[in-house]
Amino acid sequence: MTEAIKAGYEVSSEGAVRHWVVPYARMTDVTPTPTQPAELTALTAGTEIGGTVLSIDASTSTAIVDFTTGAVYLHSVRDVRTYNGGVEATWGVINIGDRIYYDNSATMPAGTKLSTSPLDNTGAANSLFGTAVYSGQSTFPMGAATAATVDCPVMQRGAGA
Q1: Which of 86, 74, 88 is nearest to 148 (CA)?
Q2: Judgement on whether residues 144 and 81 belong to the same structural domain of the protein
Q3: Which of 8, 18, 32, 101 is exposed most, by the fewest CB atoms within 10 A?
């Protein structure tokens, strides 16, 4: 029998684009902003799905979020590595391939949701958001051995990873 793709069936080598409508109440940040990282709440800390807010509809309290695995967006990333006593303790440069986490720490600068720390300032697990990647417009390493927030291209883990 000859194998054939059925009529009406689409295949993409890039994977499916995942733009989902999400109620604000299901997001870690219930006041989402377009172009900013977003995180769905989950039953187990550290397992949340992350994506990038494309648009919001304040009249329905919903956001359209891109949860596409492998999508690359430029995001503000804090170079914090560890916290001690609820405050940032160590920092380090960000390199291509470094893991980037959604960090809900109260100590994060305004407008910054991502860091290089796997734990937040309370010691709870941060969810893996993605990986620092080369974009052609960025110079690595980024950040410093002191506190810094940098605009870093991040390939998001998304849904389905």
Answers
A1: 88
A2: yes
A3: 8
Read off the pLDDT band of 3 (50, 70, 90): low
Nearest to 52 by CA among 65, 69, 71, 39: 65
CA 73 to chain centre: 9
The amino acid occupying position 97 is: G
In a domain, 23, yes or no: yes
Whether residue 86 contacts residue 7, with contact meaning beta carbons closer than 8 Å, is answered with no
Domains contained in the chain, number: 2
- Cβ neighbours around 122 below 10 Å, total: 10
pTM: 0.88
Contact 119, 96 (CB under 8 A): no
Query: What are the tens digits of pLDDT across the range 72-108?
Result: 999 999 999 999 999 999 999 999 999 999 999 999 9
Query: Which DSSP string do the residues of 103-124 spell out, in sequence order?
Result: ---TTSPTT--EES-SB-TTSP
Instruction: State which residues form the domain around 39.
Output: 19-66
